[in-house]
Every structure is written in structure tokens, then in C-alpha cells.
Amino acid sequence: MHLVVVGMGYVGIPVSVLFASKPGIKVTGIQRRSKRSGWKIDFINKGKSPVGGNEPGLDQLLFDTVKKGAFFVTDDITTYENADAIIIAVQTPVDENHQPRYESLKQVLTDIGQQMQPGTLVCLESTVAPGTTDNVAKPILERESGLKAGTDFNLVFSYERVMVGRLLHNLTYYSRIVGGLTTECAQRGIEFYKNIVSAPLFATDTLTAEISKVVENTYRDVNIAFANEVALICESLGVNVHDVKRFVNSLPNDTSNPDANPYRNMHTPGAGVGGHCLPKDPWLLKYGLDTYGKIKFNPEIIVKSRLLNDSMPGHMKTLLLDAFAERNMALSESKVTLMGFAFLENSDDYRNTPALPLFNLLKGECKQIVIHDTHIVEYEDLPITQDLVEALRDSDCLIVVTKHNEYRELSFDLLRKYMRTPVIIDGRNVFNRQEALTNGFTFRGVGLPR
Ligand code: SAJ
């Protein structure tokens, strides 16, 4: 089988090497020679993985599949002509008005439509607003190819559940939802994904699959917002939200009996919600409702949760000003140190990081601001350093935004040695509040007493 995968990113690369590692399957990756990502073509064809961070098994599998000629990347879109199956894994961002930007998706669909042959299986894996497969992808593919979806070619929406650090693992061991335009499409999709998935495969229609994908992440975003709101309540009442979370989650969690199960799973409050999934997917769900829904209404809980999570960097500034007020300090006279720029601990991924809005809220108001992150070398012209002492020296406030492991071992002695003023704002529950106070720090934390 010849599989063509479009979009050599977090989704496209692992799925390509997994299929390429199976007998009788050859994979061609398609990547535009864009300024940002064009370099990946030659990089991968040399057998090297452009995916950062620690992804067990990925580097080796990519090297092996490229070496044996089972995986090759090109920008030549005529490749679609001799594809038996095509996976679309291009980015589908939302803009500042929370509207999906489908330009690259539409271009890819047009290219495919113009080249593909009858009998091809087209699998859309990119996260899209519910309704996109039937109302955007299908019309473009049919118009450009002159073929009929469902009869001349098969169309499927099947979403990935990859997570940073577990790309290959999740693709292999997590169950998968396969939404087909017709039941025959779904069946063909199931047979196709059986090549790489050793967990249950569930057949459904495209719309149900699209909604399931964005609901998976919206569920998580709403749960984090719940934890953040409880944290604000705990700050106001003067208790530690992490005690409350520990007690709430101490209900028996007998997963073998989910219906009779009283379990709770309160998430973790923090400095904000970043990444490529959670800040985007709730808006895609709402866009689908607004655009294709027959009954119009505003999904308040989802929207308010998203806005509450986006307000957490601002809350971090509130905590900072509260701490400075206690010490009669002025922000304009102070050096502020942000600890962590990545959106996720022990990762170099800074997509939609809450550290950026917090930096922008502070940069014009404090004498100096520096960002420490050993996983990230640079981001635009921001003052990012990997040197902890340089970051701490003469600092008047340390603000924890990302829970990198190295911050768990920071000793108060070290901090007091280099900082000018002992103030900590803890956005990720790294420090013990009582110990900080005993060591003479002015201390504030998300969900902690002031
Ligand atoms: N966060 C909190 N509190 C929490 C959990 C996360 O504030 O209780 C914050 C994190 O600090 C981060 C953001 O939310 O800034 C996102 O964290 P995440 O763990 O959800 O990581 P992501 O963005 O990589 O989410 C992905 C998603 N996977 C897919 O879309 C396939 C998500 O559905 C997974 O649940 C998540 O990975 C995971 O569990 O690793």
C-alpha cells in the first residue's frame, strides 16, 4: 500500500513512521517548502526526526524506515496521483477572534482533489470544527476530482490522541474513533488503522467523530477552569486549594465499576492553560455549533471556562501586586524573574504559553524582567536565559509559571543568596508555603491563602 501523509508535524511524523514500519506499506510525506517548516524535508530524508523533546522510539523508527526506503518526504504534490490512502495532518489554528483558519487545509484538499485517483481513502486527522468534513472537505474533494465521495473514493475523519512525550505510544495503544462519510467508508478506515492501532477501533459517522475530538479537550479545559475557580474561592476564604483537591479526590476511584463509582477527579489550578489543543478546541466546538447547529445558543460554561483559564496570567500579576503591596514595593523599581516559558513542564514547547501574556502584562511596568527556561533557547526577542544565577541575581520577585523539574529542587538559601528581595509567586504549587514563610519570603500562590 502507498500512503501519502500531508503535514510533517507532531501528528504527521509519528503516524508516517508507524505505517512505514509495517510490512508492505510505503509512506511519502508531503511538506511545503515554507520558511518555517521547509527544512524538515531534507532533515527527515537524512533519517533525523524534527520532533523536539523526548519521544521514546521515534528517532530510531524514523531512521530505520527512511533507511529502508519505506518513508520519504517531498514537496511534490503530484505524489497524490498514486496514493492508495492519504492522511491529512496539517495545522488548523484559530485566529484572535477564535475563528478557525482553514487556508492551508483548503489548499491541501484542492491539491489532493486535483491529483487523486478513484478508490483512494482520504483520512482527515487534523482537529476541525464539527461539520468541516462534510461541509468543507467533501465539496472541495468532489469539485476538484469530479469524483463522488463515498462511492468513487472513501472519506474518513479520525482524530489523533497524541500527547507530548508519548506520540508513538498513544498512536499504538490508545483506542481510536473512525468517523466515515458512509458506513463503508468507516469500515475501510477501520481496516486501514488496524495496521498501526492495537487497541479497540470504534466506527461512527464523521460529525460524531469531529465532536468527540474537540469535546475530549473541551472537557479538560472546563475541568481545569473548575479547579481554577475553586482556587480563587480558596484564596478568598484563606485555605490551600491543594488540600481541598487532595481530599475531594480521595473518594474511592474504582474504575472497574464506573457507574456506581462516586469518584472525583479535580484537576490542578495554575498559572494558565497553554498548548496547541486546549486553547483552540473549545472555540472549534463553538464554531461548529454557530455555523452548522440547527438550534442556536451560547455554550456559556465552555466559553466562560475558556475565558477564566485565559485570565489566570492576569491573576498571577494580581498576586504579584498584592505581595509587593505588603512590602511597600513598586513594580517600576523592581526586577522580576519568570521561571519557565514552556507551556508544559519539562518540555520545549511554547505554543500558546501563559508565560507570554504574563510577560506582556509586566514588561512595560517593571524596571527589568527576565525569563528563565533551560528547555527553550529563544523566542522572538524575549529576554530568555538558561542561566539560573543570572535570572535570580538581584531579582525582587520569582514567579513560577511552568513546573520544570529543576524548580522543585530550588533551595530557599540559594534564592536568598542571589535575590535582592525574597518574594515568590507560585503558579504551579512548586514550593511549600509554610517553609517559604518560615524562610522569610513574602509568598503568594494560585489557590493559597494570602
Ligand atoms: N493544565 C493545568 N491544570 C491541569 C492540567 C493541565 O493548568 O490539571 C495546563 C498545563 O499547564 C498546560 C495546559 O493546561 O499549560 C495543557 O496541558 P495538557 O496536559 O492538556 O497538555 P496538552 O496541551 O499537550 O494536551 C494534550 C491533549 N491531547 C490531545 O489533544 C490528543 C489532551 O487531550 C491530553 O489530555 C493531554 O495532552 C495529556 O493528558 O497529556
Quick structural gist:
The protein is α/β, with parallel strands linked by helices and 450 residues long.
Could you characterize the architecture of this molecule?
Helices cover 39% and strands 13% of the residues. The protein is of the alpha/beta class and 450 residues long. The protein has an eight-stranded mixed β-sheet. Strand 4 (85-88), helix 4 and strand 5 (121-124) form a beta-alpha-beta unit. Helix 4 packs parallel to helix 5 (132-145). The model has no long low-confidence stretch (mean pLDDT 96). Bound molecules: ligand SAJ. Ligand SAJ binds at residues 160-164, 216-217, 220, 224, 267-268, 270, 273-275, 277-278, 343-344.
How can the largest sheet be summarized?
Answer: 8 strands, mixed
Strand order of the largest sheet: 3-2-1-4-5-6-7-8
How would you classify the helix and strand content by structural class? Answer: alpha/beta
The gross shape turns out to be globular
Total beta-strand segments: 14
What are the main properties of this structure?
450 residues, alpha/beta, 8-stranded mixed sheet, 6-stranded parallel sheet, 16 helices, 13% strand, globular, binds ligand SAJ
Strand-helix topology:
Layout lengths: L1 E5 L5 H9 L5 E5 L8 H7 L12 H10 L3 E4 L10 E4 L14 H13 L5 E4 L7 H14 L8 E4 L9 H7 L2 E5 L2 H11 L7 E5 H32 L3 H8 L32 H12 L7 H11 L1 H15 L8 E5 L15 H8 L5 E5 L11 E2 L2 H5 L4 E4 L11 H7 L4 E4 L6 H6 L3 E4 L5
Parallel strand pairs: 1-2, 1-4, 2-3, 4-5, 5-6, 7-8, 9-10, 9-12, 10-11, 12-13, 13-14
Antiparallel strand pairs: 6-7
Helix pairs in contact: 1-3, 4-5, 8-10, 8-11, 12-13
Bound molecules: ligand SAJ.
